[in-house]
Specification:
This protein is mainly alpha-helical. Helices cover 76% and strands 0% of the residues. The protein contains ten helices and no strands.
Length: 257
Amino acid sequence: MTNISNLSLLTMILFVMIPVSLSYLFSLGIGKSAIWSSIRGVVQLFFIGYVLTFLFSMPDWQGIGLWVAVMLVIASLQAAKRGKGIPYAFLLSLSSLILIEVFVLSLWIAFDIIPFQSEQVIPMSGMIIGNSMVATGLAFERMKNEFHDSKGKILAALSLGANASQASKMIIRKTIRAAMIPNVDGLKTIGLVQLPGMMTGLILGGASPIEAIRYQIVISISIFSSVSICAMIISLVTYRFFFNRKLQLLEGKGGRK
């Protein structure tokens, strides 16, 4: 595999200038944001590169435990932002992400899919936690929007004697479905429309295409399962916070009035 020189990396500035130029050309107002995001992304990646080098030099259980804990907290904080106004959004996010990570990692190790080594567990766990974070945040946001938009239907159901679970059934179903659709569509076209990141990385690293595909199957199915479970957990727990003890629909949840 050819090493990319620092000079070659600098040419990526040309790619950054394309969206920046389009922003100014069409007055999109995102030019500064695009430049800042690009710089921040590059700095973060180099920083993480040095961090991972340090972690990989540590005993596996220490490196894995430390960085997985960091990823879980950061992911939970990010997902909780989408659940602003919902009680215990951070704790719900953290609990669901920990559950998913323990569940998936246990299966990987138990069935000898990957060894308990920092070089393999940390990158693959990052993909699981990252996608689960997105699903958690999406579930929070979709739940708030659905309760706001379907207020009339919910009140009608409550007036006819439905309990909170029955009145929220359609919202829960829509929320879970919305969180799962991107991954369902992704699995339908995987390998046909694009070569997934992990598979591409392994091939560039010298692995055979068949071996790369095996790893990609593991991570793709694991992500699909993780996203589904996260969406279900968040939906089945969160809907209760939109009702009081008298089964009255609460106002102002999620910043809505």
